[in-house]
Amino acid sequence: MHKQGMQNSVREWSKLYGRVYGIFMNTQPMLVTNDLDIISSVMVKDFAYFTDRCDQFTDRIFSKTVFFARGRDWRRIRKIITPSFTSGKLRLMEYFINRCSEVLSENIQEIARSEGKINVREYCGTFTMNVIMGTVFGIQVNSQKDCQNQFVTNAEIFLEGGGVHKTIFQQLLTLTPFLNHLAVYLQNPKKNPLNFLLSAIGRIVADRKEETVPRKQTDFLQLLVNAETSEDFVDTAENEKCLTHDEIIAQMMIFSLAGYETQLRLCSS
Hints:
- By secondary structure, this protein is mainly α.
- Helices cover 57% and strands 4% of the residues.
- It is built from 12 helices and 2 strands; from the N terminus they run H-E-E-H-H-H-H-H-H-H-H-H-H-H.
- It has a two-stranded antiparallel ribbon with strand order 1-2.
- It is globular and about 60 Å long.
């Protein structure tokens, strides 16, 4: 699987074993299907029974993202963040996107006039990060002028394997989940891109909380901050619109990385 990739492996296995078969992801059994009726039932008709994803992350942040939260926590988080994606809210983000596009165009024209070379992947990455910082965090940055921006470089390192599980050591940890806690003590926190990103997002959230003047535009971050409550709250019907501080950091983290990774691949392909 590691040599051919998940998509190619599943395609070959489907030819050999049919529409429904089982595999092991490390030590965890998985059911694979390309039967459209089963997929329709799982994803649409009976989705209420299949909301949880497998336990890929055990740390206190990623396990609380909307992608990996489970049960009532997932439903509560999803209900809070869904209003951010209405057509009206998305139109408010147009300003940030247009502004970043203009900066990108100006920078490319400047390089073209000087007959310089353009690293397409680098410029697409900084453009994407500028858009994310504006639409998600509500702040304006110009990392296109500084392609070595720490937020951009650490996001790339994390997504390309420096902070996830591409090393042999991390692969071994997936086979022995009970040893995952050791990784915290064996890593250099100063060189861990995840620690940098979490710290940076934490500072942005803290700065937003200290603002006393209401913002004209309610961005994704403000919607989450407005829903914050204490860490020890009980998930009940009365608290269904509440988020803990860690849950806020988790949503900001996953949307930043997911948005950056998908757009970067699209723009540089």
